[in-house]
Design a protein that fits this description.
Order of helices and strands: EHEHEHEHEHHEHEHEHEHEHEHEH
Number of strands: 12
Radius of gyration: 22 Å
CATH superfamily of the largest domain: NAD(P)-binding Rossmann-like Domain
Distance between the termini: 14 Å
Bound molecules: nicotinamide-adenine-dinucleotide
Oligomer: single chain
CATH class of the largest domain: Alpha Beta
Length: 312
């Protein structure tokens, strides 16, 4: 078999990726956990570099990789790759933004149910050997309004799934297609403020940009309904953590569920205080962590590379 290009996989990915590349004739080296120094020493031998979030692909590494033609990220964000430096050298940078859509949507729904029903507290009490049945009166999703802020891949996937709960869905995004609204039985909010004032639960699915940093702050939190809930599985910086803490402590919000934080792991006292509140559910940025998402990302990267480089 003809050996095509040399591929270095620097972070652990599902075996679907190396095995598909090898079957297509690529010369694949799996060096999971390679150190920055070793990467600098060997990068000049490779045409393709595959990474997850651990490996930082700096300008220095890109400049040393004089044969590099593609850098592929199994995952969503490209913040760990110096995309400008790569593109200025004509190196293609790809990622797999669609791989975690279902995983994040399902986590969001799991957090939402847990939060408003208080299931996490009931489970915890059973683990402590208690039978505190009378303490656990929660709320139902049926008939409530869900405000979806950011109606991209994940926002739509959440909306699609909550239709089955009989919720009213209100959407805010800078760009909303009418056919997606119709297909999902959702309504467009005229503004973020409009959405916040009408929703019983607000779920955040915007990308992090200078405009969305601290989109949820003291002012916007004050516009949310008293007794409403906030869910954030997007990016930590979309929410001003200190303001959220105040809104929860004052009782204005009934609860919050978070998968993402301004600092990961959280380190400031106000972040830790927030997480320790009884009406806050926190998960350690596990949105994309399903086996299915990892397999789908690994396959997407392998297929992209094969399509781009395998000779006809
Ligand atoms: P996407 O690009 O498909 O959707 C993002 C949406 O945000 C777009 O429709 C865009 O128009 C909208 N948006 C951008 N700026 C806006 C603004 N100022 N006001 C209103 N809307 C705005 O992205 P996605 O794949 O749906 O991901 C959504 C979020 O989930 C991102 O922040 C992503 O980083 C995050 N995410 C988290 C995890 C996790 O592990 N928790 C995993 C994957 C993605």
């Amino acid at each position: 078999m003809v050996i095509y290009m040399k591929v270095l996989i620097a972070d652990e990915v599902d075996q679907e990726c190396p095995s598909r590349l090898r079957a297509a004739g690529f010369d694949v080296k799996e060096w999971y956990g390679i150190s920055p120094d070793d990467l600098k020493k060997v990068i000049a031998d490779y045409e393709i570099l595959i990474v997850r979030s651990r490996t930082k692909v700096t300008k220095e590494i890109i400049d040393l990789g004089n044969k590099l033609k593609m850098i592929a990220r199994v995952g969503v964000g490209l913040d760990t790759i110096d995309v400008k430096a790569a593109e200025s050298r004509g190196i293609k940078v790809i990622n797999t933004p669609q791989m975690s859509t279902v995983a994040v949507a399902e986590l969001t729904i799991s957090l939402m149910l847990n939060l408003i029903r208080g299931t996490y507290l009931a489970i915890d009490s059973m683990k402590k050997g208690l039978w505190a049945k009378k303490n656990f009166y929660g709320n139902e999703l049926y008939g409530k309004t869900l405000g979806v802020v950011g109606f991209g891949r994940i926002g739509k996937a959440v909306a699609e799934r909550v239709r089955a709960f009989g919720m009213k869905i209100l959407v805010y995004d800078i760009f909303v297609e009418d056919n997606a609204l119709m297909r999902l039985g959702a309504s467009r909010a005229s503004s973020l403020e409009d959405l916040l004032s009408q929703s019983d639960i607000v779920t955040l699915h915007v990308t992090l940009t200078p405009e969305t940093k601290h989109l949820i702050n003291a002012r916007t939190l004050s516009l949310m309904r008293k007794g409403s809930y906030l869910i954030n599985t997007s990016r930590g910086e979309v929410v001003n953590t200190r303001d959220l803490l105040d809104a929860l402590k004052s009782g204005h919000l009934a609860g919050a569920a978070l998968d993402v934080y301004e600092n990961e792991p959280p380190k400031e006292t106000w972040e830790k205080e927030l997480i320790s509140l009884p009406n806050v559910i926190a998960t350690p940025h596990i949105g994309a962590q399903t086996h299915e998402a990892q397999v789908s990302g690994a396959i997407a990267v392998a297929e992209n590379i094969i399509n781009a480089f395998k000779p006809l």
